[in-house]
Amino acid sequence: MCDAAGADSLCAMIDVVGLTKRYGAHAAVSDVSFRCEAGTVTGFLGPNGAGKSTTMRMVCGLTVPSAGTSTVVGVPYLALPNPGREVGVLLDASAQHAGRTGREILTLSAMVLGVGRDRVDDMLEQVGLSGKAATRRVGDYSLGMRQRLGIAQALLGDPQVLILDEPANGLDPEGIAWMRGLLRGFADRGGAVLLSSHLLNEVEAVADRLVVIAGGRIVADGTKADLLRGAGTRVRATDHDALRRAVADAGLTSETVDGDAELVATDDAEVVGRMARDAGLVLLELRPADGAGLEHLFLSLTSGVAEGSAAAA
User: pLDDT tens for residues 3-50?
Assistant: First the structure.
């Protein structure tokens, strides 16, 4: 999907430069820039009201930006002759015709996109909506079924790019695991995924890059490994109070997570292990922070910004 002989910009399947959206005096999004490259899943994270959905709507041509530009596969979304053949979009799973069946919705989309009817059957099978589920009216679908149908519709045109806003809403654990594998496989075949979700553990499990937005501005953008490198070390001991004292005596800072574990502000697990040994502590856990680290990173990047934005509003 990315022309190795071409310019580097061809590898930026989504390229956002200085996007800004103002509503009167209020800036919902301010100077947002990031790239999503071929072969990657980019997690787009931020608290409610941070500007995620507005940014994604601008990328998809549904909201006109006040300033800035965005391109998908090298051109503005609205300039694509048949957008669904290049970009699969799921922004609101509830925005489907409740009176039509799942098969009817996909069949109509296939006619618009110019793809064969056999593709409809393939997509229904892939998302687990074949058989009786395909003939039920969407108004009778659960939220999870609507999400699956929305994902099928996004994939129908065999696109190079997926733009998904909270696609895991309503999915059960099995469905979330299925979606994770689907997105990972799509990226591994050379596609690019922009994924907005509030499920931090799921984003961490599938994403290669993280873009964090707060107060309408990008506050972090980088590979998952780079951003979590500063997440720290997770440690638990049989004596939690003694562990906290030992951390302070060693000149390190930490915070308690999950009730009885400490998230120590160092990535050097050996330093923490030696500290515990010198303090005579019995450790139950010692490892680099992962899921808790992403939560800590997210909160540290967004809480102050969100509060400041709310105070200014």
Answer: 433 444 447 899 999 999 999 999 999 999 999 999 999 999 999 899
- Distance, in Å, from the CA atom of 236 to the CA atom of 281, rounded to the nearest integer, reads 10
Closest of 37, 54, 43 to residue 217, by C-alpha: 54
Maximal C-alpha separation, the chain: 70
Tokens encoding 196: 């907005």
Q: Which residues make Cβ contacts (< 8 Å) with residue 262, sequence separation at least 6?
A: 234, 235, 236, 240, 243, 244, 247, 254, 255, 256
Which three-class secondary structure state does DSSP give residue 191? Answer: coil
In the numeric block, the tokens 């800036």 are attached to 27
Report the Cα 41 to chain-centroid distance in Å. Answer: 8
Q: How far is Cα 266 from Cα 272, in angstroms, rounded to an integer?
A: 8
The size of the chain, in residues, is 313
